Each structure stands twice: as structure tokens, then as C-alpha cells.
């Protein structure tokens, strides 16, 4: 293990993150995400890993895009325009802390989200029992 790195950041995940370019996207999915829609390499972080823990580990080394009006997109399955899932609030706070700035997020319904996720460079899957959730992180430069 490397000093000051989360143990969730495996060699395969760090390698995948390092291979990404500015503007590429990473998709973080929970256990309820439709498996048949994933077309890119998947890094599994384990059945007991939460979405929040995975986001914190990833965003500790992954720079978010500064130029994009919304470098994070989350999958919205709630059908309530003013209701944001707790996990989305948590991930937004984690991203803002990691970036030392407010990080705007956009919500998308399943079909447009899946369409964007198909072009992701890597998919990170967690196995938490949280409600189905997924996020797209757009990479920026350091």
C-alpha cells in the first residue's frame, strides 16, 4: 500500500485513471445499475464498498473538469424534480471538498445517462446495498 492513498485505489484502478485524458469520463455505478448497459472495462471495488467511499477515494486523485459547467452527472431515478438522493448530496460534498470549490452537478434520466456512460473510459462498480445510483465524472487537467 502506498502512503496516504486509499486502499480502494487498486493498481488496476490507478492505471485506468492514469490512462484517461482531459475530457474523458469515468462512470461510478452501484449494485442496481443495469449490467447489460456497460460496454467499457469495469473495475470492481468490492461488495462492501459504498458509493461514497469509492467517490472519496477516486476524487482524492482524479481532477474534475474546470471548464465544464457540470463535471458530475448523476442518474436520477426519483422522478421528483426537487428531490435529490442522499448519495448525490454526499458525492457532491466529497467532490467540492476534493476540488476546494463548489462543483455543480447535473441530473439525467436513465436513457440519456446510459448513452453518455457508454462512452466512458472506465466503469467503477461498488456493491453497496444503497438504492440504484450512478455518477459520471468528467476528467480535467491538474
Automatic annotation (TrEMBL):
EC number: 5.4.99.62
Oxidoreductase recorded as keyword: no
Keyword Protein biosynthesis found: no
EC top class, as a word: isomerase
Keywords annotated in UniProt: Isomerase
Entries under Gene3D superfamilies matching the protein: RbsD-like domain
Coiled coil region boundaries: none
The protein's name: D-ribose pyranase
Lineage: Bacteria, Bacillati, Actinomycetota, Actinomycetes, Micrococcales
Amino acid at each position: 500500500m502506498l502512503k496516504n492513498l486509499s486502499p480502494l485505489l487498486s493498481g488496476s484502478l490507478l492505471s485506468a485513471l492514469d490512462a484517461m485524458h482531459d475530457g474523458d469520463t469515468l462512470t461510478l455505478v452501484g449494485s442496481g445499475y443495469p449490467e447489460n448497459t456497460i460496454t467499457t472495462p469495469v473495475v470492481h471495488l468490492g461488495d462492501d464498498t459504498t458509493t461514497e467511499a469509492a467517490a472519496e477515494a477516486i476524487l482524492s486523485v482524479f481532477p474534475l473538469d474546470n471548464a465544464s459547467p457540470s463535471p458530475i452527472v448523476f442518474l436520477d431515478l426519483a422522478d421528483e424534480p426537487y428531490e435529490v438522493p442522499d448519495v448525490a448530496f454526499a458525492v457532491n460534498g466529497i467532490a467540492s471538498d476534493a476540488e476546494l470549490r463548489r462543483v455543480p452537478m447535473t441530473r439525467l434520466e436513465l436513457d440519456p445517462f446510459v448513452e453518455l456512460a457508454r462512452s466512458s473510459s472506465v466503469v467503477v462498480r461498488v456493491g453497496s446495498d444503497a438504492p440504484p445510483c450512478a455518477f459520471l465524472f468528467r476528467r480535467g487537467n491538474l
